[in-house]
Structure formats: structure tokens, C-alpha cells
Amino acid sequence: MTLSELYEKGAKILAEADYGFLLRGVETEFVLANNRRIIDRYTFRQRCIDAVQPETGCEVLGVALKTPIVMSAITMPIPAIRKEGLRQVAEGLKAAGSLMWTGSPIPSNLRELVETGVPVAATVKPFQDRRQMYQDLERLQEAGVRWVGLEIDVGQGTKIGDRRIVSGCAPLSTAELKEVRKRISAPLIFKGVLSREDAVRSVEIGADGIVLSNHGAHTIDYLPHPFQVMDEIVEAVRGKIAIIVDGGFRRGSDVLKGLAFGADLVGLGRPILWALAADGRDGVRSLIEEMTEELGRIMGMVGAPAPNQVRRETLIEQ
């Protein structure tokens, strides 16, 4: 199936499922609409003469990948989409040379996912019961994940439409994040950064990476797309910390825009779910491979030989 066919088939399947509402956004759903509006604001500065033959491979925080396109942090509703859905996602991502990123709840078979050989990152939520949060962080380390993540943007839980989905969380203080840093030996990622202040503080605390994300439109309404705050963040922390971005990325062209803004990796959320629903592990593999092929073609036409050499001036703002 082509990328468009994967999206069309997968979206139709999920829309008809009982859990399809999980793909909607908080309250007015402004965030979902704004994601596409902002991504579409940028076009490319083409360079045809002496065009390069690009390589899409990269290495971030000790993990070598064939592509800068990875899975965003998701667990729900993957087990409901297909039998052994998480394992199918892991196998599809492994075949494509990408990275798997699980969210909450922590998969009961997390160690098995790690043992498939795909690089696995995993995040936990800042539960008000901090003992539970620390236990969850320890579970991730025991499972052997490559990166440990903490969702710093879920202090007020999550919502879909008018419905509270996750509660029982509380904002994290600098002191608590420093304590987390002491307990985690793997690279530590803070997910949900959308301001220069939080990015700078993440570096000061000792995080190894940050995810610029509006959390799939599931936290608060009227959040910006990361591109709206990314220049100030990258200027403040680039070279000090790994930068990952997600939020409405659907094609290789979108990914190139994320790299041009300064991201090391670009994450996919809903596309992973659509691909899994449409064609299982093969759908996930095709998703990453086709988007990577699109990315490589464009890299060759904008003078970018590698993901970390896509320049900000490649983008023309409309």
C-alpha cells in the first residue's frame, strides 16, 4: 500500500472502532487544526545544481538508526488495534531501522519488546503518588530500554473532548526532576517542552534530551505547534541536548521541516496507529520506509547530505 492508502484505510478502521475517540483532541480541538496550519506555512528553497546524494541514517544518544523518523510515545490503544499489536509495531519499526517509544500504561511485555532488537524508549507520567512514579521509572530501567522519558507536561492530566482521560498527576518541581536524574542511569528525556524556559531548565537539571510536543492535543487547548516556539528553543539549547519534535507530521516533507528547525529526530503518533490498523507490522514498516524515501528525495533537492545538515534557511515562511 502507498502511504496515502495506509492512512485512508487505517483512519477508516479506527474511526469505526469503539476506541476511535482516542484520536480526537482536547476540548475545541484547536491544536489538531493548528498543527497542519503551521506545518503548511513553510515551503522549500530548492538547490538543483550540484545536488547531493543524501544518507538518511543518524545516531542520537548512542542509538544508531536508518532514519530520523521514530515512533512518538504511545501505548493506548495499540493492544486493541491488533492482536499482539505492540509486538507488531516493534517488529515493523525494527525492520525499518527506526525506534519504538512506549507511553502509559507501561506495556506488560516491555522486556519482550526490547528483546525483539528494536531500540526502545519509554515514558512515564508524573503521578501524584511519587512512589508509584519512581517504581515505574525503575521498571523501565529493569526492562532494558535505551532511553527513559518523563512526561513533564501532564501535571494536570489529559483530556479528550470534554472527558478527563488521565488524572492523579501533579506538576514536577526542579528538585524532583533532579532526584529523577540521580536515579536514572540511561539517557533521560523530558517530553512536553514548549518554551525556552523549560528547555533551558531541562539542560540545567541534566536531561539528555527533550521532546518538543503538544502531546497529541491531549493536555490543554490552544497550545502552539512546536514550530511556533522552536527557533527560540533551538537557539538556547542546541548542541547541549538532543531535540526531538512531534505534532502532526504526516509526510517526508513534514519531517524535513522538523529537521530544518533543528530537530535530531521527528516522532509519529497517529500515523503509527493508522499503519498498524491498515496492515499490521508490514504497515508500520511501510510507513517508516515510505516517509524516509520521501525525506531522502527532498534532502537531495535542498542540498542536505544528512539529517543533521538540513539548514534552517531551507525553509521559506509564507
Could you describe the 3D structure shown?
With 318 residues, the protein is α/β, with parallel strands linked by helices. The chain has one domain: TIM Barrel, CATH 3.20.20. Helix content is 42%, strand content 17%. Helix 8 runs parallel beside helix 9 (227-237) and helix 10 (252-261) packs across helix 11 (270-302). The longest helix has 33 residues, at 270-302. The chain is globular, with a radius of gyration of 18 Å.
Which keywords apply here?
single chain; 318 residues; alpha/beta; TIM Barrel; 8-stranded parallel beta sheet; two-stranded antiparallel ribbon; 11 helices; 14 strands; 42% helix
Strand content: 15-25%
Helicity range: 40-55%
Model regions low in confidence, pLDDT < 50 over at least 5 residues: none
Q: Indicate the radius of gyration in whole angstroms.
A: 18 Å
CATH architecture assignment name: Alpha-Beta Barrel
Supply the CATH class.
Answer: Alpha Beta
- Structural class computed from helices and strand pairing: alpha/beta
Question: CATH-wise, what's the superfamily?
Answer: Aldolase class I
Coarse shape:
globular
C-alpha termini separation: 33 Å
Largest sheet composition: 8 strands, parallel
Q: How many strand segments?
A: 14
On the 0-100 scale, what is the average pLDDT? 97
Helix segment count?
A: 11
Strand order of the largest sheet: 4-13-12-11-10-7-6-5
Series of H and E elements: HHEEEEHHEHEHEEEHEHEHEHEHE
- Quickly count the domains: 1
